[in-house]
């Protein structure tokens, strides 16, 4: 079928085509790699720039937006960090004795505290200190009863109008999700509660307001309520203003994300599981495919072969 000359010509043509294809493919690969490298460098540079801008404390519109809070070392902010449950217990004490006079906690019920910071008996005793309106009874009348585990944390005011009337028109926000509802999260709440100071020269604060550089605009209706010794901790923890603020912020963070500990635990298990499965998949792939990917096809010509085939004799 093929003569010696035609076989040689075919071999030369095939080698030339393979060389041209390899050169073109290599050129395309170099262009593609260069483009992807430039794109990756741009993405990384932009991410680093945005991260640094977000951490910068001073900016052009600082007074209107509020001073950017520092990065405080709350343990639950770390990748594998969890809540300090002793701090949650102390924080709830601060909330009851200080914050609950004005702020509500509508999304937290007494039962949510069981197993987190208090025992079942302790929570039942606290709930029974409050009276709740329930009913109607068999006579169609509403009645008062002591609290139970299924009741929410009681509100300080019956409605929004009563809350505004007691606070000169300002409405104290519900604190159930406050750490998630404010930019900066726990860092912002901590900085706000500890950031009260005298207004600088040239800054006018209206009557009934208080100066706080971390609050947008600098003027806030809420007065400073946390001072050294404002509460007495039952476990003997020093009751400095910074410790009290840290504890109540930790409690509010738990109220907004009660599933945080479980979520991180499940995430760690999932990361370990999928990492193991990935290693197993890579090993199986390498074990099954290495004989195919490393296969080399070689043509060994017969001894004393002149380059002619039996078909050449038939043709002649």
Characterise the protein shown here.
The chain has 316 residues and is mainly α. It contains ten helices and four strands; from the N terminus they run H-H-H-H-E-E-H-H-H-E-E-H-H-H. It has helices at 4-55, 62-65, 85-97, 120-127, 160-166, 178-181, 185-194, 241-256, 260-293, 310-315, and strands at 131-134, 143-146, 210-211, 219-220. A two-stranded antiparallel ribbon has the order 1-2. A two-stranded antiparallel sheet has the order 3-4. A hairpin with a 7-residue loop joins strand 3 and strand 4 (219-220). Helix 3 (85-97) packs across helix 8 and helix 7 (185-194) runs antiparallel to helix 8. It is elongated, with a radius of gyration of 36 Å. The relative contact order is 0.12.
Percent of residues in β-strands: under 5%
Main β sheet profile: 2 strands, antiparallel
Oligomer: single chain
What is the overall silhouette? elongated
Radius of gyration: 36 Å
Low-confidence stretches: none
Strand order of the largest sheet: 1-2
Order of helices and strands: HHHHEEHHHEEHHH
What is the distance, rounded to the nearest whole angstrom, between the alpha carbons of the first and last residues? 11 Å
């Amino acid at each position: 079928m093929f003569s010696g000359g035609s076989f040689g010509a075919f071999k030369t043509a095939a080698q030339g085509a393979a060389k041209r294809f390899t050169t073109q493919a290599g050129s395309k690969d170099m262009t593609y790699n260069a483009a992807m490298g430039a794109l990756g460098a741009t993405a990384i540079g932009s991410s680093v720039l945005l991260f640094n801008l977000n951490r910068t404390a001073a900016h052009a519109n600082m007074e209107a937006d509020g001073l950017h809070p520092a990065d405080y070392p709350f343990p639950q902010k770390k990748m594998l960090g969890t809540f300090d449950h002793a701090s949650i217990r102390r924080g709830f004490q601060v909330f009851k004795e200080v914050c609950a006079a004005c702020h509500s906690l509508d999304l937290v019920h007494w039962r949510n505290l069981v197993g987190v910071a208090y025992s079942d008996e302790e929570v039942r005793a606290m709930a029974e200190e409050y009276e709740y309106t329930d009913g109607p009874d068999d006579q169609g009348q509403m009645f008062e009863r002591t609290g139970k585990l299924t009741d929410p944390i009681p509100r300080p005011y019956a409605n929004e109008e009563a809350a505004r009337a007691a606070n000169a028109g300002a409405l104290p926000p519900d604190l159930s999700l406050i750490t998630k509802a404010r930019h900066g999260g726990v860092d912002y709440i901590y900085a706000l509660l500890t950031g009260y100071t005298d207004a600088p020269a040239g800054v006018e604060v209206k009557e009934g307001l208080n100066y706080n550089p971390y609050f947008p605009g600098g003027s806030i209706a809420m007065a400073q309520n946390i001072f050294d010794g404002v509460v007495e901790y039952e476990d003997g923890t020093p009751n400095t203003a910074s410790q009290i603020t840290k504890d109540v912020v930790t409690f509010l963070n738990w109220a907004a994300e009660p599933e945080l500990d479980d979520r991180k635990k499940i995430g760690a298990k999932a990361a370990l599981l999928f990492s193991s499965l990935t290693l197993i998949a890579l090993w199986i792939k390498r074990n099954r495919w290495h004989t195919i990917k490393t296969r080399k096809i070689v043509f060994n010509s017969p001894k004393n072969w002149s380059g002619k085939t039996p078909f050449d004799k038939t043709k002649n």
